[in-house]
Amino acid sequence: MPQRAWLPFLVLAGGVLIASTSAIMIRFAQNTGMPSLTIAAGRMLVAALVLLPLAWLRVGDELRRLQPRQIGWGLLSGVCLALHFAAWISSLAYTSVASSVALVSTGPLWIALLSFLLFREQPGAVALGGIALTVMGSILIGVSDAAVRTGSYPQATLGNLLAVLGALTVSGYLLIGRNLRRTLSLLAYIWLVYTSAAVILLAWVLVQGVPLFGFALIAYLSIIGLAIGPQLLGHTSFNWALRYLSATFIAVAVLGEPIGSAGLAWLIFGEGFAPLQLGGFVLVLAGIYFASQMERPRDPPPPSETLVSTPAEP
Taking the mean position of all CA atoms in its chain, how far away is CA 63? Predict the structure, then answer.
């Protein structure tokens, strides 16, 4: 494979590492009493506001030429992203970091199923094996975590169900993004989707009467960190890679996030690793490796493909 063909894989790996910090910052904010919906809305609102001047200065013409179909799909992607964050961030208030991140990372199952039903895309045997290994590893991480911490999370079942809902909605977000990224530049796409999600979540907060202010400084610093790190750098790297790699492979690679999150939890909160949990991490890494062996970029990344790239041809 040409050297530049590895660029999508390197960008994706960096995005996974950055995204691994998300659950840690969310837990910091929740520990101050900030509601999960406020965290979700704040994360997307800050990201959308940061993007606003850059988007209208650099791709304003492209945004003004958006077709109704593109706007409609962008809004639907924003709905999926808003529901993903609302469900997943809420799950962290009821279950452990490891269980929540492991369950929300089961996206490959849903993406593979939806890709087959909607696009008749059938993963190869090696890719299916990689998916199976990663999902098995995620299950081991969740089971190990539940066995050790069940007493600390009496509503763990609710948290686990919310994490699965987060996996379902993020799968829809990735599948829609795969198609939209063929006709939109990266900056135009992420501004449309992130802004849609921010408006939906902010309206949700206002209708529910959820408080936005009056929390500790660390909570607001965590929201800013979530917006700049996992959202603008992490998720945007996933969206950039969608032009070159399949949604299924990206979802498999994102399964490396539980490993990063668990490592940070060990460093910051002193959480150790159970043998079953370590076995799960090994399976996840093995699954990502095998899935990557069958993946090839759709095109070599052109030199001009940057944050402000011109629209891709359909």
Answer: 24
